[in-house]
Write a structure and sequence with these properties.
604 residues; alpha+beta
Length: 604
Amino acid sequence: MSVFDQDVDKELSSPKGLHWYHWAVIFLSLMLTFGAFYISEKQVQLKMESQFEFQSQQIIELVKERMVRYEEALRAGTAALKMLPNSATREDWRKFEQNLEIDERFPGINGIGVIHYVPPDKLPTYLAWQRETMPEYRTHPEHSVNEYWPITYIEPQDANLKAVGLDMAHENNRYTAAKKARDTGEASITAPITLVQDDQRTPGFLFYVPWYDTTHSPEYGSDENDFMGLVYAPFIMNKLMDGTLENANRLINFSIHDEDTLLYTELNSSSSDLDPNPLFTRTETLELYGRPWRFNLQTTTVFREQQNHAQPYTILAGGLIIDSLLLAIFLILARSNRNAVAYAHRVTDKLKQRNDELEFMSDSLKEKNQNLEEANSELDQFAFVASHDLKAPLRGIQQLATWVEEDSGELLPEDTKGHLTLMKGRIARLERLLDDLLAYSRVGRKDGEQEIIKPKDLTIDVFNLLNHEGKFELSGDMDNSEIKIFSTPFELVMRNLISNSIKHHDKETGHIKVSISVDSNWASVEVSDDGPGISEEHQEKVFELFHTLKPRDKVEGSGLGLSLIKKVLERFGCDYRMQKNDEGGLSFFFTWPVELVIKEDKNE
């Protein structure tokens, strides 16, 4: 009994139920399904968390970046005060604010102003100086501190008029931050305050930058440490946040606390996208110019809506369906197994018989293949011999032309010498053509070497080589860039197309137009004539071997021209087509793979 028969009998004696390896596959499939579900769920969670962290950090960085820009504006104010030859007037500060364009360039800021430091002994002089331009000017409110920090200028003044003359020393948060800026020389902000110009009484703060100058003034400034005062900006938190972050379809809502004081919040019922059960929350404290701003951030309903929570469950459902299908398939296979094995018995004998027949056919094919190889070898030898025999008379003609040139010497006129030179060139050209034909006879085994040519020059040479006795003209827009191509098969295609246009022309004279354009990868070529053309119903047949549209005795060609063209173009993966043109003749278009030769500029 053969091994095959033993395997079949073993299958026939097996039970109808599933084997252990079937259950192993189903178990592993279930493990993969739940593993993919777990990993997918974790990936979705990590992706959401990463997006939340990015959005949260972006909000904090935007607030920080905006505060740095405000600091730059205040420091520009201190620089402007130092540049003035005399103490800045109210009009000087108004011009500075107008040039600064704070409404457009610094959204969220309430204004920009100057706070002069006034020791008690300079207060009368300071008040007199200010009342020269603002008669009703006064410092307010009264306080017990033995120094004065009044707001002298603030622009735009109309919107901040209540703040003019306000003394920072009257209130602890304003006064503490002002002294800190003076003593450290660094910018600082106040703890939460309510601005006098804010009718809504919402949280705000002041932003200070200290101002020093060695030029002492009789009206203000410390003569001991050159401290002249502060350039400052008042901020209302709601307005600041509106200028910094647009709360429209935002993924994150947040609130800001300065220690235990709420400065700003979106975490209330007024927020349309507030999520009562946010997916993520985060708290981060930012040390900002001496104050700890605590950011409480959480995701919005927009964030929740953008997340794809269904992906893990889709994977789980799909996996379970696949597992169920596997189980059903295994059951069907188990049921079909006995029938399949029984059928295998019946076909075994047929397979053995077929195998014997195939072995016989294989031996026959080997014999035929050997015969084909011998035939191919004989054809190669024939092509070589034929080429060699054709070259022999050409070499004889070449030798005769050389003898004529040597014997005649200077006796020949210049035109004849030129014709003799042209004849020798064409003889050499024909000899090279025979070599190219021999190489092309081995298409598929050897494509030759790539050469650098100029397509326009090659086309003109091909046209001049053809025997048209000057009755045909060649024109067209032909690119003459240097390109690297397999020139032999390309020249064969061009020669056959132009030769066909001449041989099959219905008039004694004619015009052939060749257009060639080249890019970095392909050349596009179109050869058109004004001959009789080819009707659409014959355009496919002309590609067949030995097919001609005229009787054999009325046409010079062998019927191989377009067949050879088709074979070469398909060999190099080219597109091609033919169609009637506006002159009634035929236009043949094809592409050819090229490598554009880029010359280096020697003048560089």
